[in-house]
Structure formats: structure tokens, C-alpha cells
Amino acid sequence: MTDVAKLAGVSHQTVSRVINGHPHVTDATRARVTQAITQLGYRPNTAARALVTGSNRTIGIVATGVALHGPVSTLYSVERAARHAGYSVLVGVPTSLEEDAINACVRSLHKQGVDGVVVVAPLRTDNGDIAGLAGELPLVAVEGSPAGDLAVVSVDQVLGARDATSHLLELGHREVWHVAGPLGWYEAADRVSGWRSVQEERGIDPPPMMNGDWTARSGYAAGTVLAQIKGVTAVFAGNDSMALGVLRALDAHGRRVPEDISLVGFDDVPDAEFYSPPLTTIRQEFSEVGVRSVEILLEQIGSGKSSTRRFSIAPSLVTRASTAAPAD
């Protein structure tokens, strides 16, 4: 760093400010320092910096290891937000989705010297032990329990399900059937709650719920049953993959979408607009999930205090060709 300062004609402190992205450096000075860094091939010694600052500028992410659109998109969004904030990332994958395994993964990352951890925790647990860890290091749970003494960032799944169901009812459908995800997941349970509450508020007795497991195969099985039930005109699938399975099953049984049955999904996966027909769905803003998670984590890192802040992000309805007014 001293060599860089000498070549650029600035102080050691100015080089440090440039490296750490300090805003109070002129563009000309920043350019001279950057040129000197490039010319000398300088790379910051992260171990030495950690000894001086007490920070590794590293965030841990506990990922479920489940290859589903939501968890994977959340992982990527947190990683991007961390990188933008000048932090590197260590990813830990628990040996199972049980809370003990998740806790062990958090502790492992802590031992590796991360400054804080974002836990992608979509499964329903009491989060008691995880909340206890929040007293040991900065911690944020994504899609975590609304209860417990820890910070949580989540998409408002209930609102998204209400919007999906309301859209179908406002088109004129008398009731909306639902293909739910596994109810051990917060998102699935909240989407069931939103689907049910909208209909009950309108004096509609919700029809029996179909059970799925997030996969297109389970959606196909549910769609096969729905195709044979007289009077079904509207279906809300718990995610776009199950919606794809429902769509395929309806087609296989001669039920047209949206002429016979309207269909709404959830997630707005990149392929949703290329389904046949293009899928009406609920879009989750995963980029904002990442930004807010890192933002709340960095607040804790900076203050040295744990947080119980809750941040809920509103999803949005994306209307495409898979929904229409009922034929009758």
C-alpha cells in the first residue's frame, strides 16, 4: 500500500480510502491510485486487513440445497447484493433441511470468520435455536418464521395468493381451485391462507385443496384429477412448475386453457411467458429480497447489535393469456 501511495503521489490513508470505496476522494485522485494499483499489481491482503479492522468483509449464506426457483433465485440475489456492497460470500449447504442441520451450518460459517449470515429458511420450524444464534453473530432469515427474535426478510406470499385468486374471481369465475405446495414450507402455507381467505370473504366455500410438491409431475397428477371434475373453471397453482404440469394434464384430457379452465401460477419463472399459452402468474422481486437482506445484515454488523426487524416485499400480478372470463 505504501508503494502504491508513493507511485500515485498520495498518502497511505488516501490509498486505503480508494480501496474501501470511500466517497470523499476526487475522481482524479481515484484514477491515479487505481492506475498505480494496476501498474504494481497490488492486491489487498485480506488476512492483514481482518487483523486491523476485525472484519473479513465476508457474508455467509446458508442455502437449502434445494434446486427450486425460489431458493436458488434468493441465493443469487443475496450474493449479488453482498458483492455490490464490497463483501465476498461463503455458501454453506446443510446436510438436511432439519433445524439442527441448519444451525450446525450457521455455526460452521461463524467459525470460518464470516461477519454475518443470511439464512434462506423456507421450511416451517419454530426457529428457536436459529433465533438464539442471532445473539452470537449478525443474522437474517429469508422467508423465515414471523415469530422469533431474529430479523426476517420475506415476500408477502399471502398478498400474492390473494391477488392471484382475486384476479380469477374478478374475471367472473365462481370459485378457484388450488394446487398447493408442501405445507411444511412457509410459502406454501401462506399461499393457501391467501387463496382461502379471499374466497371466504366473498362468501365462497373454497373447493377441496389439491396437494403437490412444487414439481411439474405433481402438478400433472393434480391436473389429471381437476380435468375430470365437472364445473372446474379456474385453478391457482402454488408455483409455475406445478402450473406447467396442470397445463399439460388439462391438454392431455381435452380441457383448453383458458377457454375451458383459467390457470394462474406463482413465481414468474423466466420460461413462464413461453408456456402455451403464456402463463398468468405472480412475480416475486428476488433482487429486492437480496438487497434488503444484506442491508439489514450490514446494519447489524455496523452497530454490533442484533435486530428483530421485519421487511415484507409485495409481489405483483403478471397477466398473460392463460386467464380469461369463463365461457358461460
In short:
The chain has 328 residues and is α/β, with parallel strands linked by helices.
Give the SSE layout:
Blueprint: H1 2-8, H2 12-19, H3 27-40, H4 46-53, E1 58-62, H5 69-84, E2 88-92, H6 99-111, E3 116-120, H7 128-133, E4 139-142, E5 151-155, H8 157-170, E6 177-180, H9 186-201, E7 210-211, H10 216-226, E8 234-237, H11 240-252, E9 262-264, E10 281-283, H12 286-303, E11 310-313, E12 316-318
Helix pairs in contact: 1-3, 5-12, 8-9, 10-11
Detailed description of the structure:
By secondary structure, the chain is α/β, with parallel strands linked by helices. 44% of the residues lie in helices and 14% in strands. It has helices at 2-8, 12-19, 27-40, 46-53, 69-84, 99-111, 128-133, 157-170, 186-201, 216-226, 240-252, 286-303; strands spanning 58-62, 88-92, 116-120, 139-142, 151-155, 177-180, 210-211, 234-237, 262-264, 281-283, 310-313, 316-318. It has a 6-stranded parallel sheet with strand order 2-1-3-4-5-11. The protein has a 4-stranded parallel sheet with strand order 7-6-8-9, with helices on both faces. Strands 10-12 form a two-stranded antiparallel sheet. α1 (2-8) packs across α3 (27-40), α5 crosses α12 and α10 packs across α11. The mean pLDDT is 89.
